[in-house]
Automatic annotation (TrEMBL):
The lineage of its organism: Bacteria, Candidatus Eiseniibacteriota. This is Agmatinase family protein. Keywords: Hydrolase, Metal-binding. Belongs to the arginase family. Agmatinase subfamily. One of its GO terms (molecular function) is metal ion binding. GO terms for biological process: putrescine biosynthetic process from arginine, via agmatine.
C-alpha cells in the first residue's frame, strides 16, 4: 500500500499529530481512509476525499471551541485502504474487515470516504460487535443499509419512495427536521442506546459543502448537524462513524476544512469532551 505524500514536514496523519498522540497503542480513535468512488452517480472525485480531509486536518487548529483538545484522546491514522476493481461489494467487504479489526482493538472506528457504499461494510462490522445496533444517517437520499433513522432527506428515487411506502421507517426531511425546533426526542426514540453514525456530506446544504457529487439545495447547515450529533452523543453511545462523499473541488478548500473539523468535533463528542474538561487536562499537563 502506497502512503500519501504531503507538501510539508508534518506527520502524514489526521491532525499532523506527533507520535505521542498518534500511536495506535495510545489512541482511542482510529482513522480509516478509503479512497473509492466506483458507483458515484453524477460528479466523481469522492476517491480524493480522504486525502483532502487529512490534508485540511493538518492545517486546522487543534483546539476546538466546543470539545477542546480532542487530540489528547489519541487519534491513529491507518494507511489508505487500497481500492479494488472488483466493484462496490468487494470494496465494502474490505472496509468491513478493517473496521472489524479496529473494533477488536477496542478503538472508535472513523471511516473517511470515498463513496457512501462503503458504509455498508462498516455497519456490518459494527453490528457483529454491538448488540442492538442502530444507525443514524444524514444524507440527501434514502438507501437501504440496516434499520435506521434518516435525517436531511430531500430527494427520492421512485423506487425508494415505493419502498418507504411499503416499509415505513423513521425519517425526517430537512423541513421536518427544522420543524422539530431542537426537540430531539423523536429522533432519539428511533435509535437504540448504541449507534453508528454515517454522514454523507451531500446531506449538508451546498452553500456550505459544494464539493460533493450531488450538491442539491435544501440541506442542513453546520450548526443543525452539530447540534443533532451532540444530542445523540449525550443520550447514546456512538460506536463508530463515517464522513463520506466529499469530492474536492480545485481551488475550493472550505468543504475540505468543514469535513476535517466535523471529523475532529465528532470524535470529541463521542468521548464526551468539553472545553472545560480539556482545559483542565491541559493545565494539569503543564503543572
Amino acid at each position: 500500500m502506497t502512503s500519501p505524500t504531503w507538501p510539508s514536514g508534518l506527520p502524514e496523519n489526521f491532525g499532523g499529530l506527533d507520535e505521542e498522540f498518534a500511536a495506535l497503542d495510545r489512541a482511542r480513535a482510529v482513522i480509516l481512509p478509503a479512497p473509492y468512488d466506483f458507483s458515484t452517480s453524477y460528479q466523481g472525485g469522492a476517491r480524493l476525499g480522504p486525502r483532502a480531509i487529512l490534508a485540511a486536518s493538518r492545517n486546522m487548529e487543534l483546539w476546538d471551541d466546543e470539545v477542546g483538545a480532542v487530540y489528547r484522546h489519541g487519534i491513529h491514522t491507518l494507511p489508505e485502504l487500497e481500492p479494488t476493481a472488483e466493484g462496490p461489494h468487494a470494496m465494502a467487504a474490505r472496509v468491513e474487515q478493517a473496521i472489524e479489526w479496529i473494533l477488536r482493538q477496542k478503538k472508535l472506528p472513523v471511516l473517511l470516504g470515498g463513496e457512501h457504499s462503503l458504509t455498508a461494510g462498516a455497519v456490518r462490522a459494527a453490528a457483529r460487535h454491538v448488540e442492538g445496533l442502530s444507525v443514524l444517517q444524514m444524507m440527501r437520499r434514502v438507501r437501504e443499509l440496516v434499520p435506521a433513522a434518516s435525517v436531511g432527506i430531500r430527494s427520492l428515487s421512485e423506487e425508494e419512495a415505493e419502498y418507504l411506502e411499503a416499509h415505513p421507517a423513521p425519517m425526517w426531511s430537512t423541513r421536518e427536521f427544522r420543524a422539530l425546533g431542537g426537540r430531539w426526542d423523536p429522533i432519539l426514540q428511533a435509535l437504540t442506546d448504541r449507534v453508528y453514525v454515517t454522514i454523507d456530506v451531500d446531506g449538508l446544504d451546498p452553500s456550505q459543502v459544494p464539493a460533493t457529487g450531488t450538491p442539491e439545495p435544501g440541506g442542513l447547515d453546520w450548526y443543525e448537524l452539530v447540534d443533532m450529533l451532540r444530542a445523540v452523543a449525550q443520550h447514546t453511545r456512538i460506536v463508530g462513524f463515517d464522513v463520506v462523499e466529499l469530492a474536492p473541488l480545485p481551488g475550493q478548500v472550505a468543504s475540505d476544512f468543514l469535513a476535517a473539523r466535523l471529523v475532529y468535533r465528532t470524535i470529541g463528542l463521542c468521548f464526551g469532551s468539553s472545553r472545560a474538561s480539556s482545559a483542565a487536562r491541559t493545565l494539569e499537563s503543564r503543572a
